[in-house]
Amino acid sequence: MRTALELYWHSARGRFALIVLLTPVAAALPIGSAWFLKAIIDGLTRAGSGPGVLPATAGLVATSLAIATIPHLTRYLRSDADRAAGRLAQERIFTAVERFTGLARFEDPRFLDRMRLAQSATAQTPGQVTQGSLETVGGIIVIAGFLGSVLALSPLMALIVLVAAAPMFAAQIGLSRRHASAMLGLSPFERREMFYRILLTSVEAAKEIRLFGAGPFLRRRMMGERERVDAGHHELDRRELAVQGGLALLSALVTGAGLLVAVRLALTGRISPGDIAMSIAALTGVQGAVTQVTASIATTHQQLLLFGHYVAVTTATSDLPAAEPPVPVPELRRGIELRDVWFRYADDHPWVLRGVDLFIPHGHTMAMVGRNGSGKSTLVKLLCRFYDPTRGAILWDGVDIREFQISELRTRIGALFQDFMQYDMSARENIGLGDPAQDGRRVEYAAESAGVHDVLAALPHGYDTLLTRIFFSEADKNNSETGVMLSGGQWQRVALARALLRGDRDLLLLDEPSSGLDPVAEHEVQARLRHTRAGRTSVLISHRLGAIRDAHRIVTLAEGRIVEVGTHDELIARDGHYAGLFRLQANAYAPGNEQLPAFAEE
């Protein structure tokens, strides 16, 4: 609760202070209104009490006006403060996400469920917890004020009202716990339903879904997940109906019993007509306040249970240990060494890398080849320190990279990943994300190096053209932000330009840099890359072996182990794994040979 209230206070102090001041005023107004009503009735029914009616009437009018206007003012202030608190909470949660420097958390389904609930909590919980807390305070003020009136009428009735509040409170807390637990339990189904929903409306999947007629199948999957979620919510609603119905009946019985007591006292002349009106208002007010307080506490409790996911995410430490204190990353002089590196993604998963020993000299290009699942892309992830080796170490000029600050290490690396991103942003931003500190000229130079400058410069708004159409319709031709769609090969060149924006860094990692290009474009890009890599330390992964034959060293991986290392000519002469793969690809291009090579990228 402290974290939620602190969010509210730091994001909207002035509005929060006004809401706090208005809460006791709004709570006291019904009590004052009831007393003014009692005075009016008693004044009208008692001889000689007429002069006191007018002030009481004026007071009743004033309280009625305040009762009518204060809730609207409070609602306005609360809505504004809710948005401010939501913005601050959202900023904090995504700031926390930036601290997760590795990839392990993003591959953990339970953590993804917690992340989704945490994001949901950022929009609702700070405001609802604050509102629930203030409503509880206001309800207690109402109960305390009206309970004095009930106590004056009948101590027994006051006791019954208080005792009746206990089961209400317990029932509401039980409902909130069950609801919070159900939200976590239903989260995997909601995530899958969202996956199918996005898939069915995704432009990337539209071609295959329509060609293969997979729409009905995916729609049934989506609706199946939706039905599971709805069934869970239906069970919650059924339980809530039973509990809330019972509580409403209990409240009505208590109020009815109080009215019977008040009428009996009036018939015996022990209370005045004004006292009857006061007792009715008091009983109704106390029961309403008790219901409000229990509901507010239950809602706050439920939101705090969900807010626990927000707290867990924002207070979680990095999935990769940080060196204390970190060693400055030196400019690479000697090279990078992988020393007896073993790796698997989880303890119950098979080994992806097994005892890898490799030295990448400074200024050399090291190419990696191997069949699917041999561990090539995993090695790239380890070099970027998205994961730490399960056993062994990776040394940068003799220093374990775990001794460096992760962010500083990554500023020394440029990379093109096999599963590169296509950002729904402008062409300039798509490339500039590779190094946000670079100016526009460097962005265009990187595009030239990747062979995509002419394409981007010819777009309707040049480099400022959006490379997407998800924000604006195609018909909106006059909008300067109307986007365009690139081909797959053009997107790969944009991603390559993003990597080459860091082409002057110590280490350049290229995982299938030309897999989506036509032969002419591939030849052009490979020539540009040879120029870019000259004199720089680089790791090149490609299933097109002709693209790597000029590498200083070629490493062949099989089942997570290094089976061969050498130049192209040395490995061909050795007639081992690499030579077999090379012949397989070469034969595919021989006249009359229709056999396709089985070798493909990881």
Please identify which CATH superfamily of the largest domain we are dealing with. Answer: ABC transporter type 1, transmembrane domain
Low-confidence stretches: 594-602
Report the CATH architecture of the largest domain.
Up-down Bundle
Percentage of residues in helical conformation: 55-70%
| Separation, N- and C-terminal Cα atoms | 48 Å
The largest sheet is: 6 strands, mixed
Mean pLDDT: 84
CATH topology of the largest domain: ABC transporter transmembrane region fold
- Count all strands and give the number: 10
Strand order of the largest sheet: 6-7-8-3-9-10
Order of helices and strands: HHHHHHHHEEEHEEHEHHHHEHEEEHH
Give the helix/strand class.
Answer: alpha/beta
Overall radius of gyration: 35 Å
Beta percentage is 5-15%
**Highest-level CATH class of the largest domain:** Mainly Alpha
What is the 3D form?
elongated
The number of helical segments is 17
Total of domains = 3
InterPro entries: AAA+_ATPase, ABC1_TM_dom, ABC1_TM_sf, ABC_transporter-like_ATP-bd, ABC_transporter-like_CS, P-loop_NTPase, Type_1_exporter
Transmembrane segments: 16-41, 53-73, 140-169, 247-267
Subcellular location: Cell inner membrane
Protein name: ATP-binding cassette subfamily B protein
